[in-house]
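A note from the maintainers: we've had questions about how concatenated examples are separated. There is no special marker in the raw files; a new sequence line simply starts the next protein. For clarity in this README we add a label.
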Amino acid sequence: MRIDDVLCFAGLGAFPNDDQAAIRAGAGRDGHFYTGVPVTGGYRRVRQASQALCVVLVLEDGTTVGGDGVSVQYAGAAGRDPVLDAEAAATTFGPVLRDAFAGGDAASFRASSARLDALELPLAVRYGASQALLAAAAAAGRRTIAETVAAEYATGAPLRAVPLFAQCGESRRDGVDHMILREVDELPHGLINHAPTLVGPDGRVLAEYVRWIRDRILDHRASSEYSPTLHIDTYGTIGETFGAGDACAAFLAELGRLAAPFTLRIEQPVHAASRVEQIAVLAQLRGRLRAAGSTVQLVADEWCNTLEDVEAFIAGDAADMLQVKLPDVGGLDASIRALIACKEAGVLAYCGGSCTETERAARIAAGVAMGVGADLLLARPGMGIDEAVMVTRNEMRRTLALVGARSAAR
């Protein structure tokens, strides 16, 4: 299947980009806005509307497929690419993509990915283009995204719905109710991004929040069969409160006891200044938890951005679960290989992403997660729980229905 044309234009992301450094430095709040001056390059304000680079491929039979590249919510933090200027990216890199792919064959995603990687494009551009190329390969083979990934990478993964992780944003209590009603597999993310108010003195605020989530599930679940995993993203704020040593491990273990009977995962409990330091501090903290007999699992996010980073975190035995954050990795070929590397190493593979992603990116991510047999998939787009769960869960069910119907017809 030949690609006849490549179109690039600026679109909208689903949730704002936030200057994490400015927020950590004490930027104020005024409703949905942050006040103060941004400190990270590329930001015009501390919170600004996110953009998407939309890439559309026109195939020779008239079929159109596409992908949307974005920068993550906290673009520019912890070694990540700068915030995306989609208009500039479309102007600069649209012609590059057209020259590279117009007239070319779309049948093999891995072959297309090799051509894409040779262009050395910014990650957001690579992400959007790789989505479009994966969708083109699926269209050429008359297969779903999940089947295409499974076939091209020989994953051997049985096609199934991947457990879903929803994020509540700042709707930390009402959002939990929405997730319980939807029976989300893992919840609530929590956005614990400010130590004084969300962890609190001696951790009392966060401890009460974990206890409240546990009780809310027990009080309102439809049946005892619904037993979600609790997963709190703390952005290093636990480390800010307790340091990275024994006191931190003891507090995490206490959170685990409060979460029982549910499993607890803590994402980014401590924030370090480099990848090497991040791996070391998480590995040491994980060792302390295991020595204490705690079942709390650690999830790595920041400084775990690229395929090389994922491989380094695996080698360092740094976490129970690694987030492969698709926009941060860039090309989906590298993301797929990173997820497969986690599976092969016995590390839980989290097909992550960002609330800035679009509905198109969300649907393709669902296919990627199914194709590699990921252990967890972030619901997106946006911070709207019902909408994100609907988009991702429906896409997985749609895939299973299509594959099942074809199997039944044989």
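[label: protein 2]
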Amino acid sequence: MDRRGVPSDDASDPPTRKRGGAMLVAAAAAIGGFLFGYDTAVVNGAVDAIRESFRLSALVLGAAVSAALLGGAIGAWFAGPLADRIGRVRVMQLTAVVFAVSAVGAALAVGPISLTAWRAVAGMAVGAASVIVPAYIAEIAPADKRGRFGSLQQLAIVTGIFAALLVDFALATSAGGASGDVPWGGTAWRWMFASAALPAALYGLLALRMPESPRYLVRRGRTAQAREVLERYVGDGVRLGEIDRSLAGTKQTMNLSDLRGATAQERRFGLLPIVWTGIILAALQQLVGINVIFYYSTTLWRAVGFAESDALVTSVITSVINIAGTLLAIALIDRVGRKPLLTVGAIGMAVTLATLAWCFSRASGTGDNLTLPPGVGVVALLAANLYVVFFAASWGPALWVLLGEMFNNRIRVTAVAVAGSAQWIANWLVTISFPSLAGISLPLAYGIYTAFAALSLVFVRRFVRETKGRELETM
């Protein structure tokens, strides 16, 4: 041991191989991602019913729905510094409580103001989960399995979206529509919101049993606990001495101002360059248009023979494609690395988005009356679904893996918080701008997303470094 009681890197620090426990812990933490996906998708089945119940204009309804996105930016921004102050696990426990309370609050909303407020609170929980889950998994996972474990976040997100679709469908069917009353009492759309409290409660219970991050424990001087967590969950290659040296001279709690670096020579445009890399990567993940790509999915599916009433079937097909792509990423990310996945994904997204832009340039009509020439609709549908495959197998999971591991131990959760906030702001910007862009020109809208996909390729090749298999202490 050194003079501070931290074990040195010698034979007294034997490697262990207890990986199964780490996988279970990572999976439990990823339930935060499930809530992320569930909460952002469950509102889809309730939108029309909310409009009818509160007699809302399109503008007010849009504000109520998008409040969760802005709440996500706020929650992400503050989650990192809070995690340095009270611990990663405590933040997850707090997030679970906020999830549950906001779900019940939205279900009991008496008007558009209260609904908007509760959706913003739910967004804060979603934003916090989007930050703390990848950071925690990166700090608890063995280096050679970190990509696979980190990808569980995205798998949980898409699984949460799928589960929300099924719950919405079941509730609407039992009530004869989202505005109807379910047999056991209450309106279906209110139960849609309330249903999120169940996985939130499960997340909170599991968080009570999760071990704290060993990096956080070392920073707090709790080296005995850190050693126990490392030996039980992480295994070979990581030594307390290495972690301690990487944190030498670091404050117990980092602030957003610490992302500027210690000297003017270290920073670029006010921040450390690695922080800018994380911010731009996070924004690009949304600026390629993933959250609006299927605004015209009904039109595309109609082109191959599906009726408009088959919306659930087509949504389920898309969700299954999303899950399959994410499973492909989990299988590949620790073998081929993060950078190759992002590169291939960017190329695939650029090609498929450009194809969609061309297809919509051949369309006639507008809005719900939009039609595509024979054959072009099939091409557009294939391009849209291939786009989802490329995103799900690359930028979807790889971003969260990279954000969790690309920063050093001193600034990790704070830097992830800023990048996560940028991701939510980009999400909001794309969501609110799409209707206006589509009203001007659909080829223009998809052309812009094509340009961002091409830009993401250039950015990855120029500025992103491979992190596969590297210990966090070498970042």
